[in-house]
Amino acid sequence: MFATRMRPLRVCAGGAVVCCLYEGNFQHVAAASSVAASFYGLNIDGLEAADTDLSVEALARHHLRDLRAVQQQGPYCLFGYSFGGLVAYEMALQLTESGASVGLLGLFDTPHPGFHAMLSPQELQVALRVYRADRARKYWTNLCTGRIDRLTRDALGYVGKKLRPLTWRAFRVAIRENPEASRLLRTDAMWHAYRPRPFVGRMLLIRAQGRDAEFAGDPTMGWRKSALGGVDLLFAPGSHEVMMEAAHSSQLAGLLAPSIRALAPSRHVS
Description:
Strand content: 15-25%
Radius of gyration: 18 Å
CATH architecture of the domain at 3-114 and 196-261: 3-Layer(aba) Sandwich
Strand order of the largest sheet: 1-3-2-4-5-6-7
Mean pLDDT: 82
Shape: globular
CATH class of the domain at 3-114 and 196-261: Alpha Beta
Order of helices and strands: EEHEHEHEHHHHEEH
CATH topology of the domain at 3-114 and 196-261: Rossmann fold
Structural class: alpha/beta
Number of strands: 7
Helix content: 40-55%
Largest sheet: 7 strands, mixed
């Protein structure tokens, strides 16, 4: 059984509340921020042992209970990196559908899971060719530089795509001694099963400057058709793998500062 929790990363009385998915990815940004805002990080414990029908929607519902325990009413500010961006998006949907106000939704290098399905056959052919070439270059770079951790993570993502038609439960037994591998495959399965509904508000998309070239035809990475209020696009230094690391935290915090400052102060914070 999984459990969710929310912990303070940086507390500032009287400012906006920034909810970050997930905690470990936003520690450096929170510490580097000069804005009068409180940053809270959400986490999931026990994901590798969770039920097989776990979904992005279910995670969002659990996280909203944690968020409301800290901030009773909006406007809410939600940030999510990579897979966390999908959960943040779904949280924003559920909040607006309940009548709550979402002041800022920020996705950090999170592609739309239906990006390829939106393309014409010709566009898809080009995107897949670019994607495969980019993957090959990335795998080779990681191998040559000794980044076996990144190579293993990318390989697990590829394996997860091939295993989705098979029985998850049987494979989970085979990797039960490796919680990290199990967690990666679980998030990959949820990613590809998620179908984002339209969001009526405006969205902030922060893309890594070194992001895969397959999105050259659509800078919004597929979100332009889902974010009905439009997409504000920013580019952060580094690749997808390193953009949230300490080396880039000051620049990233600076990019985010104007959007956070524009939020009305959250009045109901415990």
